[in-house]
Write a structure and sequence with these properties.
Elements lengths: L2 E5 L2 E5 L33 E9 L5 E9 L9 E10 L6 H7 L1 E2 L3 E5 L3 H14 L8 E2 L2 E2 L4 E5 L14 H9 L18 E2 L2 E2 L1 E9 L2 E10 L13 H4 L19 E8 L5 H17 L9 E8 L23 H20 L4 E2 L5 E2 L4 H10 L3
Parallel strand pairs: 7-10, 15-16
Antiparallel strand pairs: 1-2, 2-3, 3-4, 4-7, 5-6, 5-16, 8-9, 11-12, 13-14, 14-15, 17-18
Helix pairs in contact: 2-3, 5-6
């Protein structure tokens, strides 16, 4: 059941994580690989996802939010190994210089809109201080300093992005309400105002069980243009060409000016250099959907492993487990498969929405998707 929370005069939907609409597999889209129980990033044991969804008004039209992904759950302060990769850097993910240097992801991954990265970053540090939650790294004699990971995609076509509607209390909501289990998709959290391949995009997730481990993807998709869209090898964008949201924008119909954030989580015991290899494979899952990472697209990926607990302890010699590189091929394949399906799930889970200046973005029509699959024997 949905509940409404009034925060800073903005209606915030506190959604249960259970998916509200049929997912791509429910519509008969054939994806390779074996998903986990929830077909979500929460299939990696310990991972929790939380949202704050801001969806209200017409003038201003607020269509935005915050997503929080906790690698070991919101109750844990244990740092995980992580790595990141920029396929095209017209975007932002804070904290990546220390992630690259240290090999540790310290705290959650948070995702929001382009002009709210700063407030989300600062609000998380405030949350840490308020809850006496020290990071797993970066201590000093006077306390600690924190370098949170916050990523973004631009929702200004639908959202009053310069109204700065994301507030610290929304960040706290996403952090505090995170939970395991099924994950809502589409117009939720940071994905509320996003557009993907000319359809309503947003938040999506998928998982695979491969090589004895779980690998999962979470995406905030705001990328691509309609003619590019390919689903399970079918040229869906060509089959459903109408209702283009950017038809009146200069060159926007054919130019890729969106972005996508992809978070890969696994329980496989991988070290940072191996996780970077995993993050790179997300590019191949993105390419399967037809995207080409245009100049205007911020395509930034992060991978983490929540194996090796206690690896960031400040003292001592740590005995770590590491999967052999020769055993990583199933994980590479799982990353590609889960990324592709997560993007499609974001679109099948989204709903038609109208935002700033009457801009309207239609949801991917389920029946026409099924017809396209049938036409191509898929």
């Amino acid at each position: 059941m949905r509940t409404l929370l009034a925060l800073s005069s903005i209606v915030v939907l506190a959604l249960p994580l259970a998916a509200q609409k049929p997912r791509a597999r429910d519509l008969g889209v054939p994806f390779a690989g074996s998903p986990g129980k929830w077909n979500a990033i929460t299939d990696v044991a310990g991972v929790e996802v939380g949202y704050a969804t801001l969806n209200s008004g017409e003038s201003p039209a607020v269509r935005t939010g915050v997503t929080a992904i906790w690698p070991r759950g919101k109750q844990s302060s244990d740092t995980v190994f992580g790595a990141w990769f920029s396929q095209n850097g017209n975007g932002e993910m804070t904290g990546t210089t220390w992630l690259e240097e240290s090999g540790f992801l310290d705290g959650p991954v948070m995702i929001t809109n382009t002009h709210s990265v700063g407030v989300v970053r600062d609000a998380y540090i405030q949350w840490q201080v308020r809850n006496s939650r020290k990071p797993g790294t970066n201590f000093s004699p006077s306390g600690f300093f924190s370098l949170p990971v916050v990523a973004e995609t631009y929702d200004g076509f639908l959202n009053d992005v310069n109204g700065f509607h994301v507030k610290p209390e929304h960040v706290a909501q996403a952090l505090d309400t995170a939970q395991p289990g099924p994950v809502a998709e589409g117009n939720v959290g940071g994905g509320t105002g996003m557009v993907c391949f000319g359809f309503k995009g947003g938040s999506g997730t998928s998982s695979r069980v491969a090589g004895g481990y779980t690998v999962a993807a979470f995406v905030q998709c705001n990328c691509g243009r309609r003619p590019q869209l390919t689903i399970a090898g079918v040229p869906v964008g060509a089959e459903i060409p109408g209702d283009l949201p950017y038809a009146q924008g200069p060159n926007w119909v054919h130019d890729d000016v969106g972005s996508i954030i992809i978070v890969i989580g696994t329980d496989a015991p991988l070290l940072p250099h191996q996780l970077k290899r995993l993050a790179r494979r997300a590019t191949m899952g993105l390419a399967r959907t037809g995207a080409t990472s245009g100049n205007g697209s911020g395509d930034i990926f992060l991978a983490f492993s929540n194996a090796n607990p206690g690896a960031a302890a400040q003292t001592g010699v740590h005995d770590l487990k590491m999967l052999s590189n020769d055993q990583m091929n199933p994980l590479f394949e799982a990353t590609v498969q889960a990324t592709e399906e997560a993007i499609v799930n974001a679109m099948t889970g989204a709903e038609t929405i109208t935002g700033v200046d009457g801009h309207r973005v239609v949801a991917l029509p389920h029946q026409r998707l099924k017809e396209a699959m049938k036409k191509y024997g898929r």
